[in-house]
C-alpha cells in the first residue's frame, strides 16, 4: 500500500469511533491522532441520542476539513448510512450518518463499519502495513471480520462482506429457526464463548483476564486450548479460501501471547503445506485502529471531492 500524502496538505480530520459502550474520538493530522477523548455511548437511549452525542463531540473540535466515522452496524458506505444494526442501539437502522454530519459541519464525511475501519487502520498504520491483501478478525462478544484486497476493504454487494462469525463450524448444532448463528464460528470462537466454556467448570472465572491469570492450572489451560482449536477451525477455512499472505487477529484477548502462539502452531498443523506461508499477527493499534481507519477513509473521501 502506498503511503498517503495527507500530511503535505496539512489536513485535520475529526475521527469518531461509535461503539456500543463508548464513543472514542480524536483529531488526525499527518498520520497521528491527538486530543483523544472518550464518552459513554448510552446506547440504550437510542439512535437519536447517540447522534446528538456525536454532534456534541465534533463541535468540541476546531478547524477540521473532514470527518471519519467508524461505527457498529452494517454500513452502506456509498450513502454513509446504517444499513442494519441490532437492538444494542435502538432505532439505529436507517440512520443517515453522513448526511447528518455534512449538514451540520459542511465538510466531507465518510462512514465505515467498525471492523472494516479497524482493518483499514491496521493496513495503513499497524500490523497490515506493507501488505496489499490480508484478512482481519476480531474476537469479543462475537467474531467480526474484514477483507482487504489491493489496499481497499472489500464490502460485497450488500456492504456486509467479512461476516466470518457466520461460518458454520458445527453443523450438528445448526438450528437457524432457534438461533441464526447456531453452529457458527462465533458461538465457539468468541471471547464470550471462552468465558461460557470455562465458567461451566469454574463459575468464579467471569472474564478473559481472570481466565488467563489461571492459565498455569492444567484444567483451565485445557479449556483454553479447546477454545483456541475452535479459533483455528474458522481460520483453516479462510486460509484455504483466500490464500492470504497475512491474517490479523484483534480483540483484547489476542493480546495474550499464548493465544497467538498456539493459533500459529495449531493452524500450521491443519493447513495444506502449500498454504502454510500465511503469517498470523496480533492487531497492533489497540483501540485507536477504528479511529485511524475512519480518518483514512475520510482522507480518501476528501481527496475524491477535491481533485
Distance linking N and C termini: 20 Å
Main sheet: which strands, in order across?
A: 3-2-1-4-7
Kindly estimate the percentage of residues that lie in beta strands according to DSSP: 15-25%
Radius of gyration: 20 Å
User: H/E series, N to C?
Assistant: EEEHEEEHEHEEEHHHHEHEH
Could you say what the CATH architecture of the largest domain is?
2-Layer Sandwich
Structural class: alpha/beta
User: CATH superfamily of the largest domain, please?
Assistant: ATPase, nucleotide binding domain
Shape: globular
How many beta strands in the DSSP annotation? 12
Mean pLDDT: 94
Number of domains: 2
Note the total helix count: 9
Low-confidence stretches: 1-8
Level-1 CATH class name of the largest domain: Alpha Beta
Fold-level CATH name of the largest domain: Nucleotidyltransferase, domain 5
The largest sheet, given as strand count, sense and whether it forms a barrel, is: 5 strands, mixed
What share of the residues lie within helices?
25-40%
